[in-house]
Amino acid sequence: MTGADSVRDRVGDFPVAWPVQTRWTDNDMFGHLNNAVYYALWDSAINAWLARDAGADPMTDAAFPVVAESSCRYLSELAYPDDLVVGIGVDRLGSSSVTFRLALYAAGLPPTDRVAAVGRWVHVYVERDTRRPTPMPAEVRAVYEAAL
Amino acid sequence: MTGADSVRDRVGDFPVAWPVQTRWTDNDMFGHLNNAVYYALWDSAINAWLARDAGADPMTDAAFPVVAESSCRYLSELAYPDDLVVGIGVDRLGSSSVTFRLALYAAGLPPTDRVAAVGRWVHVYVERDTRRPTPMPAEVRAVYEAAL
Amino acid sequence: MTGADSVRDRVGDFPVAWPVQTRWTDNDMFGHLNNAVYYALWDSAINAWLARDAGADPMTDAAFPVVAESSCRYLSELAYPDDLVVGIGVDRLGSSSVTFRLALYAAGLPPTDRVAAVGRWVHVYVERDTRRPTPMPAEVRAVYEAAL
Amino acid sequence: MTGADSVRDRVGDFPVAWPVQTRWTDNDMFGHLNNAVYYALWDSAINAWLARDAGADPMTDAAFPVVAESSCRYLSELAYPDDLVVGIGVDRLGSSSVTFRLALYAAGLPPTDRVAAVGRWVHVYVERDTRRPTPMPAEVRAVYEAAL
Prior knowledge:
Four copies of one chain form a homotetramer. Chain A contains two helices and five strands.
């Protein structure tokens, strides 16, 4: 039993497809994407999606999300300078928390529709000042509901 | 059931304690350590430990480890410029793979001995040229056995 | 007299315009792009351009470029999640070295055509094994000449 | 004439010596420290020094420093997992700005006292709300004066 225990490993399993770019420093000494970069790309994709579709602003919003858990299962290699895609879906939606299923794969993606990595990610909304859990904003919830 | 499913969350649960430093860019807009940084610190600690104790050289070794799975459960906040410690233990040791339990916590650590994050990490050894699984080197195995 | 001493600060001063994406972790605690990220983006843009147009492969090429000098003058703020553009031009082309002028600016760029940062960057080609200077490959030189 | 135009390239040229650690991801595909990492390490060392000696807090201080210019001259290679040292000195001290000379070198440093890289860095203090230049705090100035 692992962190990404319900593997859905096809592009079609993820309602949102968010294009992301790779960088020179993403490749490590083995010439492939470093394992921590997968998480950084998921983080960037989720938050850019929330900025565009829910107007989220991390510097001023009274409530913002912190990561409670994350996990990744690495299925095949990726590398700079390839363009990639983050797949996002919502598995569970609570009052103050949301659980995502995530994927990362190369744009273009022949010869199969299998993704290169799958993950799981739990966001909990907290108040800026107290850092205590709080219900997520309505605009954010609406975006998540559309990705269930 | 989550990615870090057998929580051992005390400093004493980890045989190896590896000091790590934080950086300005580790803090995100919320003023705390970004979630992907935990994985980068674990990666750096594991590989520096293998370089020192097993003579591992990622640029020339015929067999090297790639990450098959990783996960993290975030229990409390950490922040630059604090000095931190990575805790490392070996949970399972196969012929070509090793499963770590990992922790991250502030150096000093009052008032409790609870760690700030726990994780799980699976390394699989592969041949440099073929990227096919291969038995890990004997020097590496000896280091892992001492951390079981 | 500074590192970016001949300021050409308009979009039109740079023959190559390479789109780059920002990431969550690019913003520091002040909510704007961290200063080191400018260099990482320039590095990524230059090398992706060389991969596409000159077929450069950093893992196998017998000669590859190392950075001898770099500098940046920061003129205005940039921030994730905005899409950016790297401007690239060649100022000097030697046998084994090339000097770039570089820029970074927001895609879209109203209300002026002033860039947000200008820089200077010197690449020296070295042999993989000896790390001694060596003439750059002909395919690479052709790409640089087109950007003079 | 380059960004690091007054080369002082010996350890003794820098009044402050701040130990920094390397990370797995600092090495790029060529097996040495990526050029942008030098800037990230300088940033981390300067700000940790200001936190410790001047009580600077980037999340709440009314005035904080932004980078106006930076440059680096790369003299020899460095690599993870080596421990490094940042050298810091103050070249010029104005009302709202400070110009540093910087170095990076391996801890231990035989067989010479030559540093591996030298740099120049200009910090300008700005008000948090307006981002307009403002005199630096007295506690910070005192720290800088001691490093002239």
